[in-house]
Write a structure and sequence with these properties.
Structural class: alpha/beta
Largest sheet: 8 strands, mixed
CATH class of the largest domain: Alpha Beta
Radius of gyration: 27 Å
CATH superfamily of the largest domain: NAD(P)-binding Rossmann-like Domain
Order of helices and strands: EEEEHEHEEHEHHEEHEHEEHEHHHHH
Helix content: 25-40%
CATH topology of the largest domain: Rossmann fold
Strand order of the largest sheet: 9-8-7-10-11-12-13-14
Number of domains: 3
CATH architecture of the largest domain: 3-Layer(aba) Sandwich
Number of strands: 14
Distance between the termini: 66 Å
Number of helices: 13
């Protein structure tokens, strides 16, 4: 092996031809790791740049390793050509060329890149270049994400982990106890089984999805993830403490996202050493069905982080919208006054629960009425968000109605406990 340049140099594993054992027998059915420096006989034709093979000095060939399939280094151009997934073509860019002091890989779909890389294989090669499928230093890209840490496996966390796994990525889900781990596992199994029964997922795909989800109680298991989406209890101190811990455990380039529906993203970012890499990614329930993610930009969130959020939404098959970092974001700032109005209407005896829900369902073409929706969200969750909005804006329409407070005190929290505005039995 050649001497390594530096720990972070992507060409650390470039092998010198003088060090390669060219006489080592080649394993059956596999390409040889080391290749000679002389082009193969019969390949003495010019390449597509018009150069004779003897004029090329450092072209190289790469066996299939991870995502990278072919690479060629042209000494006179100082360009590393790489191909990933057979159709994604790009070039390695040096520190000086990148303009920000760090090497990077830039994608390119120019046909010439692909043509030339193919010609390397035809005309012989001098070196083997081993480029790991991991990202170089710099901003994380959505297409580079392979493993996602999900914090919490409640209603939202389980849905997020399912969507991540259905997108072909590995989800490592963190919970606080073995009991909650098992409860979350059952929730995911039930949700995916329901998807099979409704024809949204076939049985084989379900098995694969479940195999890509693991649950843990040890935060250290998130040390090597490429992205974290936090969906823990909607409590300010709990979330701030979790972000502080995630900042200690995860790699410095990893983006930390929160599914919070009300807590300022700036508060979460301030608990970390990377506030520029913190954003809100607010999913909607049920996550596998609802197609929207609200992206929330804190005052400290960078443009790269927001671009990552938009791109990752595409990876998950979701539509994204962007909101400023203030309580309620877009949807809840509009939704909470509407739901509070329905509760007050019922509280005042203006109409029955059935008539209120039927009027909205049929008159406004909503999939369900407001009281049915509160039961789905959870009355305690609705109360918490309403309190946060009222505390920030002091607008009467955000104030929780007395009936809501009393129902939460009585434990009538909605579908998750079997009783809210409606009785759902056992």
């Amino acid at each position: 092996m050649a001497e390594r340049r530096s720990r972070d140099d992507p060409l650390d594993d470039l092998e010198s031809p003088e060090r390669q054992d060219l006489h080592e027998p080649e394993p059956a059915g596999q390409p040889r790791e080391g290749l000679g420096t002389t082009p193969r006989p019969g390949c003495e034709r010019s390449d597509h740049h018009g150069r004779h093979p003897g004029e090329r000095q450092d072209e190289c060939r790469l066996r299939h390793r991870g995502e990278v399939l072919v690479a060629g280094l042209l000494q006179d151009e100082r360009t590393m050509v790489w191909i990933r997934d057979r159709d994604q073509v790009g070039e390695h860019v040096t520190e000086d060329q990148a303009g920000h002091g760090e090497p990077e890989r830039r994608e390119s779909m120019e046909p010439g890149f692909l043509t030339h890389a193919a010609s390397l294989l035809q005309q012989g090669a001098c070196l083997i270049v081993r480029l790991p499928p991991t990202r170089e230093r710099g901003a994380m890209r959505a297409e580079d994400v392979r493993t996602v840490g999900v914090i919490g496996c409640g209603l939202m966390g389980s849905g997020i982990s399912e969507v991540v796994a259905r997108a072909g990525q590995t989800a490592i889900v963190l919970e606080t106890s073995d009991e909650l781990v098992e409860r979350g596992r059952r929730r995911i199994e039930t949700s995916t089984l329901r998807a099979v029964e409704r024809g949204r997922l076939d049985a084989e795909e379900r098995t694969a999805v479940l195999g890509r989800i693991s649950l843990t109680t040890d935060v250290q298991d998130l040390a090597d993830v490429d992205l974290v989406i936090e969906a823990a209890t909607e409590d300010h101190d709990t979330k701030v403490g979790m972000f502080r811990r995630l900042d200690e455990v995860t790699k410095p380039e990893v983006i930390l996202a929160s599914n919070t529906s009300s807590i300022p993203i700036a508060d979460l970012g301030a608990a970390t050493s990377r506030p520029d890499k913190v954003l809100g990614m607010h999913f909607f329930n049920p996550v596998p069905v609802m197609g929207l993610i609200e992206l929330v930009r804190a005052i400290s969130s960078s443009d790269d982080t927001m671009a990552f959020g938009r791109a990752y939404g595409v990876v998950l098959g979701k539509t994204t919208v962007e909101s400023r970092d203030r309580a309620g974001f877009i949807v809840n700032a509009l939704l909470i006054p509407y739901l509070n109005g329905a509760i007050r209407m019922l509280e005042d005896g203006f109409a029955t629960r059935e008539d209120i829900d039927t009027a909205v369902h049929l008159g406004l073409n909503h999939p369900m009425g407001p009281l049915q929706l509160i039961d789905l969200i959870g009355l305690d969750t609705h109360l918490f968000i309403a309190n946060v909005l009222f505390e920030e804006f002091k607008e009467p329409t955000f104030a929780p109605p007395p009936l809501l407070r009393r129902m939460v005190t009585a434990g009538r929290l909605g579908r998750k406990v079997g009783r809210g505005f409606y009785d759902y039995g056992s």
